[in-house]
Amino acid sequence: MKNVTVDGCQRDIVIDGGKISRIVQAGEFEKSFPTFGYDVLDCSSLTAIPGFVNSHTHAAMALMRGVGEDMLFQDWIKRIWDIEAGLHKEFVYWGTKVACLEMIRTGTTVFNDQYWFSSTAREAAAEMGILPAVSYIFLEGEGRPDAETQKAKCQKWYDASLGWGDSAIFTVSVHSVYSVSENLIKWAAEFARDHGIKLHIHVSETLKENQDCQAAHGGLSPVEYLDSLGALWSDVIAAHTLWLSDNDVRILGGHGVSCVHNINSNLKLSSGYKFRYTELKEAGANLCLGTDGCASSNNLDMLEAMKTSAIVQKAWREDPSVMPLDELVAMATENGARALGLQSGRIEEGLRADICLVDTRSSFFLSPAPFLANLVYSSHSDCIRTVIAGGKIVMKDRVIPGEEEILANAANVLTQLKK
Ligand SMILES: [Zn+2]
């Protein structure tokens, strides 16, 4: 990559073996090294930013946009589970591909997924060139396999994941405290700890979840309950964490849990919006950003998630200095990478080459303001011109190979979806 702007300076970036191997002053690389054997990308008028990490989503729900509009959370989730009862591999395959198309277009290079047929989702993402973290998901209830069957499946999927190489990260998911029993939560947490893998779980998404948990578990909040089961530690990725007491904040921070804010989903489902950003940060939690699935947030645009997160946080706290730009960008990049144990999320030598090239030739960037201000608050994600994931170009000049075929196949699969 030559003549690319990084932090306001002109640079050449060399990518080798999927990583950023050198960052030098523009012009230096060609002077010092023969370019033979390298593909050279001229990036004049483009600014490099790290690829985004979507820390909580349900990718294949890209084919379920708008299926539960204007519904209460409890009715909405029943509607989703009803549709999912008829789910099949082909739906997940093309749904994940559509999600990847959208994520690539909007600058996401890594995503933390929680969905069914995850090995199919993994294949779809690998073909698209971006990195997924996929789960075995524990979820109990009517029509679901019994606990012993789920444990055996989790073990089997984990064993299979050992052959995935760098194409995906395997995680264990517990859907939530209200949909999985105490014994199974304990088992899943122990399994994740024993194998050194991440545990992904929805936590305190709604006030009702908190009230029900307190009623069922002797007054314990979901965070206190999970802590009592030994299910909170630094490898836990907790989605939402919206309804938190001071004690909950202390527990999450004390364990260094990664808390994922999903503002658009929360606003849309009226789950709440007072994410305790400042308190969680001060307590020591790792704060990340996600979109949640398209059935609630309707898109997978991390720039949109960044803007909404910041303006809502500033509004309810009546403090415009909260969630400043550099911290906001870190939530969407390096903090998400840290949550997944990845060396990524910054434009730095030695890190995974996950890079978005932003075209600044538009009115949105014609301003004396810093680049990040224009990027997050003024522009839209269509300013992202080229995306590199793990060192490979997955979108060049807004073109993603195979897009038409993906959209046609996904449209075909949609006709089979249970109405
Ligand atoms: Zn979710």
Q: In what order do the strands lie side by side in the largest sheet?
A: 5-6-7-8-9-10-11-12
Helical segment count: 17
Structural class: alpha/beta
Beta percentage is 15-25%
Looking at the structure, the CATH topology of the largest domain is TIM Barrel
CATH class membership of the largest domain: Alpha Beta
User: Cofactors and ligands present?
Assistant: zinc ion
The largest β sheet comes out as: 8 strands, parallel
Q: What is the overall silhouette? A: globular
Spans where pLDDT lies below 50 across 5 or more residues: none
Our Rg estimate from Cα atoms comes to: 21 Å
Total beta strand runs: 15
Fraction in helix:
40-55%
> Which architecture name of the largest domain does CATH use?
Alpha-Beta Barrel
Mean of the pLDDT scores?
95
The total tally of domains equals: 2
Distance between the termini: 48 Å
What is the fourth-level CATH superfamily of the largest domain?
A: Metal-dependent hydrolases
Task: Please explain how this structure is put together.
This protein has helices at 28-32, 73-84, 89-105, 118-128, 147-161, 182-195, 207-216, 222-228, 246-255, 263-268, 277-283, 294-297, 302-317, 325-332, 334-339, 371-378, 403-414; strands at 4-6, 9-16, 19-25, 46-50, 52-57, 108-113, 131-138, 169-174, 199-203, 236-240, 258-261, 286-289, 355-359, 384-389, 392-395. With 419 residues, it is of the alpha/beta class. It has 2 domains: 4-50 and 351-395, Urease, subunit C, domain 1 (Roll), CATH 2.30.40; 52-339, Metal-dependent hydrolases (TIM Barrel, Alpha-Beta Barrel). An 8-stranded parallel beta sheet has the order 5-6-7-8-9-10-11-12. A 4-stranded antiparallel beta sheet has the order 4-13-14-15, with no helix packed on it. A 3-stranded antiparallel beta sheet has the order 1-2-3, with no helix packed on it. Helix 9 links the parallel strand 10 (236-240) and strand 11. It is globular. The model has no long low-confidence stretch (mean pLDDT 95).
